[in-house]
């Protein structure tokens, strides 16, 4: 907990009354992630509504050496928005304006607090011919938060969500406002594109206040195909083959336990958009033909009826945003879960799938076990692992943590890296890097945030640190 309290009074004087909150129930809400893992300490919650207010908070924080943790939807399952060293939690939810949409260049400028649900509704009402890549997250998740963290979504053929960022506006550690390729007057378009300094840095390099993002055409008809995969050793080749034809919108692989046999059922789900049902059926035939020679050789990739999925799951599949993630999170009926995302090379998919199923059997997990999403045109994949636990049952919690530790080890051994790693996983990654790479990362954070104001404790490392919990 930050001991110096004089800055709190200055903060109250500098900002409107409905902006600063201390010693309230809000402090508890912001002290932990929805997954119920690490608990942090919060001195003050600030909910600004303008960039100027953000700058004022940063100015005071720098003067008094108070850490700031910026948050959007507060939905990170890996503790990235839980304070490590107390201080200020800055919730950007009130900065929720959609400032412009250009239907010809297919771009939009939005503030950091714009939510997924808000953006969906706005485009459907005002620009029904346009869409953006929607993450598998609740409607209260922010578009900005998912994009700056290399999220993925329903338009995975175009890459990770960070690839869909065109420009960024940021408040830096000296409270200055920095605009990079926001398209206002062309002046910020000159020189190298260094917006990458604010992608995947977990808020360590500045507070993002606006984004300029890509939009995409919305076709009139959207549906999906489901194939049953009999040979998991060919999963990487299946993804490569499916993405090679250029027709897909999104590709998912997932495994679920069959009720009667208790054996894993591996399914391939291909989302397509089309002009109408006839156009969709033509594309469906392309994929049936695509796998016909595989089936003749006994590899088995068979088109199956959608009702192979549970009815509630099936009902949600075409919803944007999707619902139903709460079923997986609360499978143990205790409201806790531990989540892992991993960016993996394509050729690691079969081995990850086999190892993941072994871990699930070992610790008694069932239902949808793992989801693998293609990113780009087969360039890489992101895997999603979620182990639920009952918060009131220490043994249940411990088993989930043991299972996740093994899953992390598998991802690292197969050449992958954790997505949205917590502070301990970050330290493991830094410890495993060569010295030059690690020194460059630490050097960037030192230049961009010399006083360690922004999300202090993330991307930090000291000699001998191996990422073990304290």
What is shown here, in short?
Keywords: FAD, Flavoprotein, Oxidoreductase. This is FAD-binding PCMH-type domain-containing protein. Helix content is 31%, strand content 23%.
Please render the helix and strand layout as text.
Elements: H1 6-14, E1 20-22, H2 25-29, E2 44-46, H3 51-64, E3 68-71, E4 88-91, E5 98-102, E6 107-111, H4 116-126, E7 130-131, H5 143-148, E8 165-171, E9 177-180, E10 207-214, E11 216-217, E12 221-229, H6 235-244, E13 250-257, E14 264-274, H7 277-290, H8 292-296, E15 301-304, H9 311-316, H10 325-329, E16 335-345, H11 349-363, E17 370-375, E18 380-390, H12 394-413, E19 417-419, H13 423-432, H14 435-448
Parallel strand pairs: 2-4, 3-4
Antiparallel strand pairs: 1-2, 5-6, 6-10, 7-11, 8-9, 8-10, 12-14, 12-15, 13-14, 13-17, 16-18, 16-19, 17-18
Helix pairs in contact: 1-3, 11-12
Defining traits:
470 residues, 31% helix, five-stranded antiparallel beta sheet, eight-stranded antiparallel beta sheet, Vanillyl-alcohol Oxidase, Chain A, domain 3, alpha+beta, Uridine Diphospho-n-acetylenolpyruvylglucosamine Reductase, domain 3
Overview of this protein structure:
The structure is a single chain. A hairpin with a 6-residue loop joins strand 13 (250-257) and strand 14. The radius of gyration is 23 Å and the shape is globular. The two termini are 17 Å apart. The chain is 31% helix and 23% strand. An eight-stranded antiparallel beta sheet has the order 15-12-14-13-17-18-16-19. The chain has a five-stranded antiparallel beta sheet with strand order 5-6-10-8-9. A four-stranded mixed beta sheet has the order 1-2-4-3, with helices on one face. The chain contains 14 helices and 19 strands. It is an alpha+beta fold. It folds into three domains: 1-91, Uridine Diphospho-n-acetylenolpyruvylglucosamine Reductase, domain 2, CATH 3.30.43.10; 98-217, 2-Layer Sandwich (Uridine Diphospho-n-acetylenolpyruvylglucosamine Reductase, domain 3); 222-419, FAD-linked oxidases, C-terminal domain (Vanillyl-alcohol Oxidase, Chain A, domain 3, 3-Layer(aba) Sandwich). Residues 38-218 form the FAD-binding PCMH-type domain. Keywords: FAD, Flavoprotein, Oxidoreductase. GO terms for molecular function: FAD binding; oxidoreductase activity. InterPro entries: FAD-bd_PCMH, FAD-bd_PCMH-like_sf, FAD-bd_PCMH_sub2, FAD-linked_Oxase-like_C, Oxid_FAD_bind_N. This is FAD-binding PCMH-type domain-containing protein.
């Amino acid at each position: 907990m930050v001991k110096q309290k004089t800055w709190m009074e200055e903060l109250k004087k500098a900002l409107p009354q409905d902006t600063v909150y201390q010693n309230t129930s809000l402090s508890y809400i912001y002290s932990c992630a929805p997954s119920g893992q690490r608990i942090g300490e919060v001195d003050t919650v600030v909910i600004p509504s303008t960039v100027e207010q953000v700058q004022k908070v940063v100015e005071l924080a720098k003067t008094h050496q108070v850490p700031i943790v910026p948050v959007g939807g507060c939905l990170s399952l890996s503790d990235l928005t839980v304070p490590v060293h107390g201080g200020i939690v800055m919730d950007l939810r009130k900065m929720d304006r959609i400032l412009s949409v250009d239907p010809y260049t297919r771009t939009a400028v939005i503030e950091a607090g714009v939510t997924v649900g808000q953006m969906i509704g706005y485009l459907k009402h005002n620009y029904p011919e346009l869409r953006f890549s929607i993450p598998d997250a609740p409607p209260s998740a922010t578009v900005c938060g998912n994009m700056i963290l290399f999220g993925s979504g329903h338009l995975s053929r175009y890459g990770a969500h960070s690839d869909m960022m065109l420009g960024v506006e940021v408040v830096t550690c000296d409270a200055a406002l920095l605009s990079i390729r926001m398209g206002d007057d062309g002046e910020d378009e000159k020189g190298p594109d260094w917006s990458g300094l604010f992608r995947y840095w977990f808020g360590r390099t500045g507070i993002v206040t606006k984004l300029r993002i890509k939009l995409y055409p919305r076709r009139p008809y959207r549906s999906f195909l489901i194939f049953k995969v009999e040979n998991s050793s060919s999963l990487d080749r299946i993804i490569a083959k499916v993405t090679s034809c250029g027709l897909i919108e999104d590709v998912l692989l997932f495994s679920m336990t069959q009720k009667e046999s208790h054996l894993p059922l591996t399914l391939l789900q291909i989302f397509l958009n089309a002009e109408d049902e006839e156009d969709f059926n033509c594309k469906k035939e392309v994929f049936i033909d695509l796998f016909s020679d595989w089936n003749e050789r006994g590899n088995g990739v068979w088109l199956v009826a959608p009702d192979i999925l549970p009815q509630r799951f099936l009902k949600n599949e075409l919803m944007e945003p999707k619902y139903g993630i709460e079923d997986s999170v609360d499978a143990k009926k205790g409201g806790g879960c531990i989540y892992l995302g991993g960016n993996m090379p394509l050729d690691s998919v079969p081995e990850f799938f086999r190892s993941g199923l072994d871990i699930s059997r070992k610790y008694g997990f069932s239902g949808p076990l793992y989801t693998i999403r293609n990113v780009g045109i087969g360039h890489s994949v992101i895997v999603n692992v979620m182990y639920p636990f009952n918060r009131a049952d220490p043994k249940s919690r411990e088993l989930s943590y043991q299972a996740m530790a093994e899953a992390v080890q598998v991802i690292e051994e197969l050449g992958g890296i954790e997505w949205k790693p917590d502070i301990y996983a970050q330290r493991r990654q830094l410890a495993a890097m060569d010295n030059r790479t690690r020194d460059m990362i630490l050097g960037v954070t030192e230049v961009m945030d010399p006083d360690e104001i922004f999300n202090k404790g993330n991307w930090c490392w000291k000699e001998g640190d191996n990422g073990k919990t304290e």
